[in-house]
Design brief:
globular
């Protein structure tokens, strides 16, 4: 059974940092592309970042570029999202999502990903 479990969310002040984790189980190590999405109240779910399975390349939404860093540890089947210089507009539920296969590059089209976690809340507020 394929499962993704996010952790690491919480309340942080503007300018602060958080690191989210996504633990994958049931997936063959490294043989899936993975992404982070987020959804704020009343808004559509949007892509944040992704990392490919073939070459480890990453892609970031313009809104987080330079502030967020995504990485993966294939030995642990775990992915991370380091979020720095957080802003109130980063407040959302953050989801990790995965698609099996070996891919060069990645993208943030929601329909591409068919396995989703339940999300973790990130709140940026003073």
């Amino acid at each position: 059974q394929l499962q993704l479990v996010e952790s690491g969310g919480g309340l942080v002040q503007p300018g602060g940092s958080l690191r989210l984790s996504c633990a994958a189980s049931g997936f063959p190590r490294g043989h899936y592309a993975i992404a982070w999405f987020r959804q704020a109240p009343g808004k559509e779910r949007e892509g944040v970042s992704c990392i490919s399975s073939f070459d480890g390349s990453t892609y970031y939404a313009d809104s987080v570029k330079g502030r967020f860093t995504m990485s993966r540890d294939n030995a642990k089947n775990t992915m991370y999202l380091q979020m720095n210089s957080l802003k109130p507009e980063d407040t959302a539920v953050y989801y990790c999502a995965a698609v099996l296969g070996m891919y060069r590059g990645c993208d943030l089209h929601r329909g591409r990903y068919d396995n989703w976690g339940r999300g973790t809340q990130v709140t940026v507020s003073s």
